[in-house]
Write a structure and sequence with these properties.
With about 220 residues, the protein is an alpha/beta fold. The protein has a single domain, classed as P-loop containing nucleotide triphosphate hydrolases (Rossmann fold, 3-Layer(aba) Sandwich). It is built from 8 helices and 6 strands; from the N terminus they run E-H-E-H-H-E-H-H-E-H-H-E-H-E. It has a 6-stranded parallel β-sheet, sandwiched between helices. The longest helix is centred in the N-terminal third of the chain and has 26 residues. The two termini are about 25 Å apart. The C terminus is likely disordered. This is Deoxynucleoside kinase. GO terms for molecular function: ATP binding; deoxynucleoside kinase activity. One of its GO terms (cellular component) is cytoplasm.
Amino acid sequence: MNNIPFITVEGPIGVGKTSLAKLISDHFQYHLLKEIVEENPFLGKFYENIDEWSFQTEMFFLCNRYKQLNDIQSDFLDKNIPVVADYHILKNLIFAKRTLQEKELSKYIRIYDVLTDGLPAPNIIIYLHASLDTLMERIQKRDRDIEKNISPLYLEQLSADYQEVMEKYQKQYPNVQVLSFNGDALDFVKNKKDLDTIIDKIKQTLTLGAYNHESTQEI
């Protein structure tokens, strides 16, 4: 576990992870790590045909996130420079378990376990969640070509997967503080008071010395 703040923002597609990570980075002057999304050459095909393109899509994300986190460790955390990222690599398993067939999933998990062994882990996770209507509305507003074929059912299932994984994660890693925020109730992009609510909670967690609470805190 790093003593230097390493914050990750997680949640389903369209919930506002990158926007919030950038706002946190700007406020605290932490280095911002953004995941590669649109650069994935398989992603558009994935949303058109999940069964056909899921393994290629997930392997591309896994390899890129592995490289990014390796670099973050050596270039920033080892030099006592705090980091905020708009993803946690555990999302790879969330997506893979939702989309891969059993044979491919078994192979994927073996590769995942090898690559993630020894990677830097966050000490604070910001978990954003929202209703399906909110997620679909935000996806439509940002109007990415690769996301035009996202199925509402897939997104709803993904949201449920995230909720389950985050609850299990907090029990498995009690030294990691998970701060949970309702994206239906908070608009941290347009409403500064909502952003201040999140920032204040992060400040409290940092002041407490991070990362030894026993339960997810919901706002």
